[in-house]
Amino acid sequence: MTYCSRCNRSFNSWPAYYQHLRDSPNHWECQPCQQDFESRLGLKEHYVQSPRHHYCQYCNIHFDCSSELQDHYEYEHAYCSSCHKVFKNELGLHEHNRQSHADVYCVLCKRLFQTPSNLQSHLNSSIHRPKDTICPFNGCGLGFINKSALILHLESGSCRSGVNRRVVDNWVRANDRSNAITNPARLITAGERANIKLIATEQSWNGQAYECVLCHTQYRALMDLNRHLDSPRHQEKVYRCPLDTCRKHFVTLSALCQHIESERCGVMKFRAVRDVMDNLLNGVARMTL
């Protein structure tokens, strides 16, 4: 004789008792765990909380492993993978991200970033900032989101005016008389090479590729090697951050400008430094050939 205390019933055999467990509304059994629950809700909570089960309570689906459940959440539900939380809809997820991940979440784009600096770069991009810094040269008129983007445009040689990196560098050398953003010690050696253009020929072929004699980097095409030689790769880092506690050096003016605009060292907090930088950068933007 087998007795069910929950239902206050007796059974003549074990098969009859097991049949009762399967059919009775008072018994909700998890067979893999051999646990019996009083309600469907209790069984469901067991599925959700037990590490042995990989269960989606929203779809009432069991999965073979945790990675399959994770994929299901990400593709079928409003899911925060950082917090391992599922939300009723996308609006719920959006509000969660806005409040809990504000340092890495773009509210307008509803997009998460890995780091706060990545978010800041996104917010400083043309997606969120107008291209209201206009190239001043006749025949160009392209717009950029900030001064560093404009200077990079000039350094690249893509401006219709014909301005390139050498023109920009020579202008700064001539106008930064107080060496606010240039290192005079490095200008001495760099100035000797400032107007020298390195050009590779077919003699750069080493039998397998075109090789740079300065750094031994190899290229498949001669054009790529010459593009490398014309880049700032082998130039002196003549530009430096004007903040005494930073003094980080850069090869190009645009790189220095990006460093300042990023506010990583706090240089823009100082009025005197801002005035010097604004005068120089505005001068570059207004320079004529």
From TrEMBL:
InterPro entries with a match to the protein in the record: Znf_C2H2_jaz, Znf_C2H2_sf, Znf_C2H2_type
**Top-rank taxon, per record:** Eukaryota
GO MF terms held by the record: zinc ion binding
Boundaries of each C2H2-type domain copy?
2-32, 78-102, 104-133
Q: Which UniProt keywords apply?
A: Metal-binding, Repeat, Zinc, Zinc-finger
Protein name, per record: C2H2-type domain-containing protein
